[in-house]
Prior knowledge:
alpha+beta
Amino acid sequence: MTPPRSITTTIVHARIIRDSWPRRALFGLLIAVALIFAFFPQRYHAATSLTPTDPESLGLSGTLGQLGAINNVFGNQAAVEVALRVARSVEVRDSVIAQLNLKERFKDRNRIQIHRWLEDKMTIRSLRGSIILIETTNTDAEFSRKLVSAYAKATQNMLAEISRRQTAYKREVLVKLVSDASAQLAISQSNYDQFRLRNRTASPSAAVEAISLRIPQLEGAIKAKQVDLAAARQLYADNNNIIRQLSTELSVLQGQLAQVRATSPVGEASVGRAVAASSQLFKLERELSIARALYDSYLRFLQGTAVENLTSTASVRILEPAFVDTGRQLNYPALALAALIFGLWMAIEFYRRMPPVGDRLVARDAHG
């Protein structure tokens, strides 16, 4: 009983493959056709490279830091991943279609088909060192160069637009904060000025300091009068006019000292009044200082948004303008097909030279 033939046996014993010269001619022709398609039509590889930038690489870190604009609008996200996502977005492809007028070039394709063609033809990947490579291979060298250049420009413009939108939102928030801080600064300044008017002094702190210095002055004057009075009593009687004058002056000085030392905030030029005034003064000064600091900070950040707008287009730096590679480009699928055909040919040759035992029995039965 003859065993059934396998698929391999059927192929090997086919008429065109069974004879050596037709077999060699067939596989040689197939390999030649695959190699022709591997080299022709000539293909051109175009590429461009870009990298995300930061203020330090622009030499503006000091200026942006002073204006409060040194932070990246993308926060803690990796700038390379953001740039890759933007470069592969639908908006970028729409921009490329508009720049190169691809609808006219591909009149037989609609927008979706052109998008699919771009996704298939364009390669966007990241390299080491935060470098983004945009490349394509096409039979038209100039069109390939324009295509990668349009992708780079569209990616740069899209990232700049995102930066401007983020800056506009930041500016809107800062304008509100500056407005509120300005109103609070005006209120604090008005309260401080009203306090100075109530105390009838341009500098309340100087007035408080003057009251503090008056106590040792009065104490020194009282001691001097006491010495003068004691000396006068050595010479005059108590009913003498000099004794009476010195006693009166001493009483006046002691009364002034008692008034200054009074702890009640009601009395004029007293310690109590000075303590109450200084407490209120320090409170108003703190409020005024905080309001002024907030206003200055928010205003500085608001000014920084103008610089961010000016540097928005520098969010991505193009390292290499679009160029066409000078090396010969091969059609690797066709080259792989040629290698596959050659491998199949060698396998058939090996099979025919050393067939398995079952195949030998089939061939013996066929000839017997």
